Records
---
Amino acid sequence: MEVIVHKYGGTSVGTPEKIKKVAERIARVKREGYEIVVVVSAMGHTTDELIDLMHKVTDSPDPREYDMLVSTGEQVSAALLAMALQSLGCPAISLTGGQAGVVTEDIYKKARIKEVKLDRLKKELKEDKVVVITGFQGIDSEGNIITIGRGGSDTSAVAIAAALKAQVCDIYTDVDGVYTADPRIVPEARKLKTISYEEMLELASLGAQVLHPRSVECASIYKMVIHLRSSQKEDEGTYIGEAPRLTTFARGKEAGKMEKKEAVRGIALDENIAKIGILKVPDKPGVAAELFGALAKEKINVDMIVQSIHSSGTQADMAFTVDGADLKKALEVTEKAAKKLGAGGVVSDPKVCKVSLVGVGMVSQPGTAAKMFETLAENKINIQMISTSEIKVSCVVAAEAGKRAVQLLHKAFGLDKISQ
Ligand code: ASP
Ligand code: MG
């Protein structure tokens, strides 16, 4: 019998009514004659509420107890969903990550999944039960409950689907697929039928919050096709995978286009960044290593880096971006390094954002970056920083220009016109 893996996010199981709706869908699929494994997130904002609760008790939580606490949200939704299924006459059992055989590294709060031992899962499936598993958690080698990082249930689902050798991992969420841009910013944005792992990884890392980047990484390692779709509708969503495999899932025009590849397939906007500049640093070997080494030591992720020659010829200016949340810490580190290096000063600007074009077709179609710069120039949007990779062009612009830039670029690259 073919096994199907469904994952339901926090909003999709946010209320008892929604849990009952999800149960109806699962019972229907079960009647079609499949083995079904379901991975759930915690209801609504439960995990955030548990963390708030924790902060009322302590400012320095022990990591083991943190995992004990935040993993409980998923137990609530898993048990309730199993009960809802049972009351529809559909045999079901809920299992914690540990009970389901999800083994993680021995690291609290952000472990990776090492393996999924299938014995218990297979036994329950054989007894014709729907198996509902808590996402976001597993157990370590000593039997401790371990969580795998915020938003980790997507990754749990992909790992479990891969272990079960499922054809596809259906991730049900409150959006109905991956769009050419955020439809709240660009109303004409189109839903993509298919998208490659590389493109999805870029979009997910660039702030498109539809999928956890690690789940895409995991899927690409195991060649697991993800079907991202709405828990409210029956329509197909977006298939994420490798081009050849995708065509067997998503037929129709857009799927065929995976071969032709438009240069740009999606536009992302990351409003959560900040820029730091360090001025007049000596232009000599070791300077970048000193500064970025210090930042790395503090676990601050640096994204774009630009160095320009100062008019003096012996000095350089450097600018880089960090996550908005890291700005304060990054400034402290940079100021310290600036003193050590004898730099002229440090400046920062939190009011910036990053607009990125993503598409694997860029590799073979030159001119994407030039067209992006032209479009921004024609509309008097100043580019503060640029970075490119084979499948991405990103520009840092003023925060207030970000949404308009996305709208203009969406139109300029004809993303509104390509029909499904
Ligand atoms: N409930 C967890 C969180 O809020 C995991 C997830 O939703 O994927 O981070
Ligand atoms: Mg989530």
---
Amino acid sequence: MANKETLIAGGPVVLPLVREYGVKLLPADSEHSAIFQCLQGVPDQGLRRILLTASGGAFRDLPVEKLSNITVDDALKHPNWSMGRKITIDSATLMNKGLEVIEAHWLFGIDYDHIDIVIHPQSIIHSLIELQDTSVLAQLGWPDMRLPLLYALSWPERIYTDWQQLDLVKLKELTFCAPDHQKYPCMQLAYAAGRSGGCMPAVLNAANEQAVALFLEEKIQFLDIPRLIEQVCDRYVIHNCSSPTLEDIIAADQWARQELMNASQVLEHSTITKVSSKQKTLTLT
Ligand code: MG
């Protein structure tokens, strides 16, 4: 599974089919590959908690009051990973981590109260699992997508590579801090959507895709991304159902995209939120 959005939106339909046909779903996302690697040999009821690591994105060290001036170019600079435009923006808003919480829920069958996020700026520990006896296992490596991709292809085997080996002495230190939910509301939006279930993760995902597209076109500001997604999710609550069909999910996805466009029009007309070219000179420290 190399595309998390499919599983996030379609989890209620995909997972029962995976079970019915006895398909082994192998993750290629680096965090989920780390969890999957750590889980090898762990008995079925052994997992207690998942700890997803997050680099903190492009604005990890930027004070919250400066987030309103962020430009597309600023947001496309990721400190550790070289990735596509959409996922790099998702990393900057930390929506990527929120989406990965929902992805972990579906892949590993664990409830949202037992999935936590920790900021780890070096991106060397790709995620951790805690077992029932409090033992914690982690998977480490350079931030390089080749490894999770190779493991998805070679599992359960391990193939020799001549890639650069990890050097802990050279790294010297690995650091951690708690995620800032005030600064990055997208994580809580994702937890809330995951807990609502039904089509809500599909609505969150579609609203996010649409909001990121508008940001990349410089039609909304960086901080409008979580604001608009929250509005769309709030409006969907009354329509949500507990066991959606594929048709329900596709309809919810399309509804959310349109609803986000409508909400962004109101934003544009009423205010100050449009990015002006003058603001593009912000320098990150
Ligand atoms: Mg990832």
